[in-house]
Amino acid sequence: MSTAPSSSSSGIKRKPSVIITIGMAGAGKSTFVQRINSYLHSLDPPSPPYILNLDPAVTQVPYEANIDIRDTVNYQEVMKQYNLGPNGGILTALNLFTTKFDQVLGIVEKRADTVDHIILDTPGQIEIFTWSASGAIITDAIASSLPTVVAYIVDTPRSSAPATFMSNMLYACSIMYKTKLPFILVFNKTDVQPHDFALEWMQDFEAFQSALASHSGSHDSEGEPTYMNSLMNSMSLVLDEFYKHLKAVGVSSMTGDGVKEFFDAVEESREVYEKEYLPELERSRAAREKTLQDVKDDSMSRLMKDLAVDRAKNPDAALHDRWASDEEDDDDDAEINIIDRSEEPWPGQYIDMTRARRQDGEQINWPRPS
Ligand SMILES: Nc1nc2c(ncn2[C@@H]2O[C@H](COP(=O)(O)OP(=O)(O)OP(=O)(O)O)[C@@H](O)[C@H]2O)c(=O)[nH]1
Ligand SMILES: [Mg+2]
């Protein structure tokens, strides 16, 4: 891993920025990744990013991924073997891939000296990445090693109704508070509908409330505001605070409009990462280590007390209470390797599902994802 400080003036390569694209199904995540990929290629000099596709179910991606989950896990096979539906299949495929994420991180860190951007494309079903243990593990692992930003892709034309806009923003809010990472709202598809209305609603909650009031269905038959209307009015006040912590850019992944502004926002987010996320990460890491150490010290002192009592009771047995030091743990999963497409020939090597399958009579319960 590069330990270089983030400064190019000192002549040492600064760490690359990681961009995690998250968004509702069909918001345009993959198209956006393709667009920023081609923008980075078109720079002078070109600065090709390193791209990871984490969507196991996608049939075609519009860019060339350097690491593709589909090379490691066969999603169709996972569905069959575990008797799962499409969402359970994606979730389980992501879980299996996450068991190998230390290898991915190793490859990515090796590339940190040669690339300026690392981009992650996530599965279409947003909750699979944002609410699963694997999504959190992947996000935390990468963010604790490199400056990371979440690009939350919004389908602008589909968010033009106040109620849809608000539910999308609430989702964004929950992801921001869960990851605690710098956050950029990317209003995509501005070629279809400009995002001015969204900016106005974010800057002025009264504008949002009046849009809400004029929207059909906001009043009941007696002319009173509906329950939903009152709820959204109050929520808009709550979200006002959330909007203050955000950067918002309008982008068209189709035409390339706004991509430069997006990268300006990524650059600003690096500072937020370094000033806010990193110190917080170090604080929580130190707290976790202290708790662990306390638990270890406590159990060690109890063990020593027990041993002392045992030895006092039975001095002969105390001579034999040693265990052989030359026994080592077997690490039997070392043979499945993550493929860096830019280095290795592929098609790749899949995680062998037949080894994961339950044998007859074996009393193992493979947990079904809920
Ligand atoms: N007009 C327009 N269409 C877009 C834009 N970005 C994406 N699309 C279209 O939106 C649709 C969905 O795009 P994808 O990139 O597959 O979206 P996604 O979020 O990756 O989808 P999933 O991974 O399936 O959730 C495609 O038909 C794209 O062509 C844009 O900026 N403008
Ligand atoms: Mg996609």
Automatic annotation (TrEMBL):
It comes from the Eukaryota. Its EC number is 3.6.5.-. It is an enzyme of class 3 (hydrolase). GO terms for cellular component: cytoplasm; nucleus. It is found in: Cytoplasm; Nucleus. Residues 326-335 have a biased composition (Acidic residues). Keywords: Cytoplasm, GTP-binding, Hydrolase, Nucleotide-binding, Phosphoprotein. SUPFAM superfamilies: P-loop containing nucleoside triphosphate hydrolases. Its main location: cytoplasm. Residues 318-370 are annotated as: Disordered. GO terms for molecular function: GTP binding; GTPase activity. Binds to RNA polymerase II. Small GTPase required for proper nuclear import of RNA polymerase II (RNAPII). May act at an RNAP assembly step prior to nuclear import. Belongs to the GPN-loop GTPase family. This is GPN-loop GTPase.
